[in-house]
Protein: DUF4191 domain-containing protein
Organism: Nonomuraea cypriaca
Amino acid sequence: MAKSEDQEKPGRIKQLRMIAKIIKQANPKGMPIVFLSAIGTLAVIVAIGLVTDYLWYSVFIGILAAFTVGLVVFGQLAQKAQYSILHGQTGAAAAVLEGMRGNWQVTPAIAVNRDQDLVHLVVGHPGVVLVSEGPGNRVAKMLAAEKKRVARVVLGIEIYDVQCGDGEGQVPLGKLQRHIMKLPRNMKKPAINEVKDRLRSIPRNMPMPKGPMPKGTRMPRGPKMR
């Protein structure tokens, strides 16, 4: 058991270095912000300890708090850096959706048009969510057509449509996960699995976009504390 944990450590360190490199490329001030936030947290808690005569206790608490704050800031900057890399790429919304935590099933590109606009299918606690990529004037018809097609299979299940993009009334890529996660929880796990089974019967026979989709690209969730 200890041996397997030792083997995982180099992998985790390599992953952290890779994420740090991505942050540095997207924002040169990113890593200094991480270190300053951790050091600032430690300094504030130690200062409080000096005033209250609990110096050693505050040092211990300060180190834990600084580590936690550093991890949180590191994770947030990593997520922003990943968004900036994905922005403008075909299939960026699918990559963001596939990084969501929880019981979600994401089927990328269930509909594609000649302009490489996409519609992705998401199944989870809210029900069925159709997420589009592309200008609003082009994807509105695609979403309506897919909503009608899906509704024939999942009778009585709530279907939401979300336009991901930078246009008016659209959800920006950086806010897409949060928007989906905030939708009402209309279904429990058994119902979700039943809907997934029903949707597998829908045929998928359509042209894929010419540009490369960011395959397997997932949003970083930050390092886990042990």
Remarks:
- The beta strands are 105-112, 118-124, 127-133, 159-164.
